[in-house]
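RECORD TYPE: inverse folding
INPUT: structure tokens
STRUCTURE:
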């Protein structure tokens, strides 16, 4: 595992400290989980955006519809 050093606003760090104590979870584990969730949300948003763009592309829709034709 790689060590990463960063700066956080005092208010955010205070909230992190409070949660860490309340939940008895190390701060790095909270940050790791939060970052993982955030990155997953970004990936999902990009995936949705690409599908929405494809839905507006007539060529893509024609290809999709042709693939649905039953012989």
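DESIGNED SEQUENCE:
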């Amino acid at each position: 595992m790689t060590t990463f050093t960063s700066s956080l606003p005092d208010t955010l760090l205070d909230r992190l400290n409070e949660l860490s104590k309340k939940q008895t979870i190390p701060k790095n584990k909270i940050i790791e989980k939060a970052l993982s969730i955030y990155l997953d949300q970004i990936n999902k948003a990009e995936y949705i955006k690409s599908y929405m763009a494809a839905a507006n592309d007539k060529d893509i829709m024609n290809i999709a519809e042709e693939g649905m034709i039953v012989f």
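NOTES: The mean pLDDT is 87.
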